[in-house]
Amino acid sequence: xxxxxxxxxxxxxxxxxxxxxxxxxxxxxxxxxxxxxxxxxxxxxxxxxxxxxxxxxxxxxxxxxxxxxxxxxxxxxxxxxxxxxxxxxxxxxxxxxxxxxxxxxxxxxxxxxxxxxxxxxxxxxxxxxxxxxxxxxxxxxxxxxxxxxxxxxxxxxxxxxxxxxxxxxxxxxxxxxxxxxxxxxxxxxxxxxxxxxxxxxxxxxxxxxxxxxxxxxxxxxxxxxxxxxxxxxxxxxxxxxxxxxxxxxxxxxxxxxxxxxxxxxxxxxxxxxxxxxxxxxxxxxxxxxxxxxxxxxxxxxxxxxxxxxxxxxxxxxxxxxxxxxxxxxxxxxxxxxxxxxxxxxxxxxxxxxxxxxxxxxxxxxxxxxxxxxxxxxxxxxxxxxxxxxxxxxxxxxxxxxxxxxxxxxxxxxxxxxxxxxxxxxxxxxx
Length: 430
What we know:
The protein is α/β, with parallel strands linked by helices.
């Protein structure tokens, strides 16, 4: 980069320019042509919906089919705000009406269960089959339930929700916290790296602590972490000290945080330092790429999908692009904004490939806002480029909220967070 931005200028730039962060601002859709090329997109989240929309914005002669089981998509960003009593589920609900009506995207509410890479086809759970010229796979994450002894998918849906896919488990965890007896504790068990939204468990810790302080003053949040450190740790712990005192008890793996097993009958987490009992237990299991990525053989030994960083095309199956949380994207974290940024780069690459052109090297962006309290926001942001080492962060781009930020700055960050969500949701689904 030839120009350096202050962190505050960078934050304002990201808020103002979410729609054009990687591709610039595009004009009207061009008229359709005969003999359309067809792109199928699996997954209607931040990555998939972005890719589908921006392919059509760049070249409406390409037909796009978006495959997404849910008619309403609940975003993981801001789902922690629901648990803290600051938002409702309807506030994080997105639909596909505008993608269909304004952009001519065919939206199929079904589940992709098989990809035939050789024949360029996708089989659906409902029995249908879709042919494609290019395929975008944005399946999000799946969970390794077996990694936590005593835990299971059934327990996640009924007793110990992970709530790391927003929806019914978000509602369940919120209800459990609201109905918990004052004096009982909420236990949060974050996974090891890499996982979706690295600051997510700690924003969740913050906002649950806010709710408890307001409604259950004798209760605490105990974080049993499998790691020694976490994203934005200094900023979070400073905020916890200012806002919550001893309401939050974070324990590193070496300080008794390592989880050995869970017992749903006694609502106990067994750790290296002994058992810890909770009124509510939020286990977030280790993660890997979504199921369809495994079924299609798009993953390697890490459980994630290797890609060409210029186009996000799979290095295992040509013609298939993998974006979002499921892919291995160098220095980029697994976040909603990163997925959207990757979706736009992939859209541009696919359009150029289908036009017989060479894709341009990408410029990618990520920003992640976290709320420590209702008027206390923090963030991390960066710009990325492609080098011989893959996708790397550009030096001096973005950065963290300053540790010495004053109350006005922290309040501004909370306002930016709300603006970020509104803008990115409008950009993708609106």
